[in-house]
Amino acid sequence: MKVYYDQDANLDILKGKNIAVMGYGSQGHAHALNLKDSGMDVGVGLRKSSSRWKEAEEAGLKVFTVDEAANWADVIMILLPDQNQKEVYESQIKPFLSEGKTLAFAHGFNIHYKQIVPPENIDVIMIAPKGPGHLVRRTFQEGSGTPCLIAIHQDFSGQARDKALTWAKGIGGTRAGVIETTFKDETETDLFGEQAVLCGGSAELIKAGFETLVEAGYPAELAYFECMHELKLIVDLYYEGGLTRMNYSVSDTAEYGGMTRGTRVINSDTKKVMKEILSEIQSGKFAEEWIEENKNGQPTLNKLRKENQEHPIEKIGAKLRSMMSWLKKN
Ligand code: NDP
Ligand code: MG
Ligand code: MG
């Protein structure tokens, strides 16, 4: 598989074009600011009521309402929450999609599950950073970058791939490596990753480990350091050098205990469930459920969010982290 780096992309392709970033949240602020720092003409599209309007202006960006930005722009990147994109697209973006414009996404959900069906006479591309927006910004400012996936849904101009690569370079992605995929593969692997491993899997692993120690009578402080805090240090080793580096860095006791016991925690039953989760993504069942959840005002999300916020690990964690001077207080 080809991996693209800085020398494979040319910033000139988007220079002088009007670039609109819709939304100024996690991804939105990162794309807008990185592209601006890369010499692009960037405008941000927000709703009038947005508390982030002033912040974007103070950062030196042009700020418009979403429909004004869509009208002004040659390239439109939608960085709104996935569940709000369809409605905003229909009412404030679609009317301004004249021939030859480019519509971009950072995740394929709405295109892949046909919530948004763009006109045929425009380019439709994706640039999906493989990391949270705040790291897309921070790594860029530090001179490094966040790996990105790019994908082409429609190539009306014949330049769609070059545009996607240029965008990826402008936000720092080609410093770390960019690979081309499809909207389908990005959407399905992204949903699977966040559900089974990154967000769902890791959070439940942490909670189960913490609860096991606390229920056995160990202090919550000790359980927190062991099961949550230390996980970051372990993940840093994976990030730097994979499983081998992690196992090299921990003690032989940890390595032996981990390899003989880890497979009892995550076993063939776990993998069977992972396969079920993946099929629900592939069949569209998860997408249907999530769209329905949003129509109903997110009752399940709100209930589970509250439960998680009230978990004992959150109380003890907040107390311990407040003493860690290097953690920003916001
Ligand atoms: P956020 O939730 O951080 O985006 C919030 C922004 O969208 C705010 O500026 C908010 O404005 C604006 N917004 C929300 N609803 C509307 C509306 N109806 N009209 C106008 N503006 C609105 O989104 P993310 O950055 O998390 O996600 C954006 C996209 O990036 C998604 O497709 C996501 O899948 C993808 N992605 C996200 C990653 C991440 O790290 N979070 C990683 C990779 C991809 P206001 O200030 O008014 O509330
Ligand atoms: Mg995701
Ligand atoms: Mg130990």
Question: Helices and strands in order, then pairings?
Answer:
Elements (H helix, E strand, L loop, with lengths): L2 E2 L13 E5 L3 H12 L3 E6 L6 H6 L3 E4 H7 L2 E4 L3 H12 L8 E4 L3 H4 L10 E7 L3 H9 L6 E7 L5 H11 L2 H4 L1 E4 L1 H16 L1 H16 L4 H30 L2 H14 L2 H16 L1 H11 L3 H11 L2 H10 L9
Describe this structure in words.
The structure is a single chain. α5 links the parallel β6 and β7. This protein has two domains: 3-181, NAD(P)-binding Rossmann-like Domain (Rossmann fold); 198-266 and 298-327, no CATH class. The protein is an alpha/beta fold. It has 16 helices and nine strands. The chain has helices spanning 26-37, 53-58, 66-72, 82-93, 109-112, 133-141, 160-170, 173-176, 183-198, 200-215, 220-249, 252-265, 268-283, 285-295, 299-309, 312-321; strands at 3-4, 18-22, 41-46, 62-65, 75-78, 102-105, 123-129, 148-154, 178-181. It binds NADPH dihydro-nicotinamide-adenine-dinucleotide phosphate and magnesium ion (2 copies). NADPH dihydro-nicotinamide-adenine-dinucleotide phosphate binds at residues 23-28, 46-47, 50-52, 66, 79-82, 84, 88, 106-107, 128-129, 132-133.
Please tell me what the overall shape is.
globular
Parts with pLDDT < 50 across at least 5 consecutive residues: none
What integer is the average pLDDT?
97
CATH topology of the largest domain: Rossmann fold
Q: Which range best describes the helical content: under 10%, 10-25%, 25-40%, 40-55%, 55-70% or over 70%?
A: 55-70%
What small molecules does the structure contain? NADPH dihydro-nicotinamide-adenine-dinucleotide phosphate, magnesium ion
Label the structural class: alpha/beta
Q: What oligomeric state is this?
A: single chain
Spatial order of strands in the largest sheet: 1-9-8-7-6-5-2-3-4
Strand share of the residues?
A: 5-15%
Please identify, by name, the CATH architecture of the largest domain: 3-Layer(aba) Sandwich
Q: Largest sheet, if any?
A: 9 strands, mixed
Q: Separation of termini?
A: 40 Å
Cofactor: Mg(2+)
Binding site for substrate: 251
GO biological process, one term: L-valine biosynthetic process
EC number: 1.1.1.86
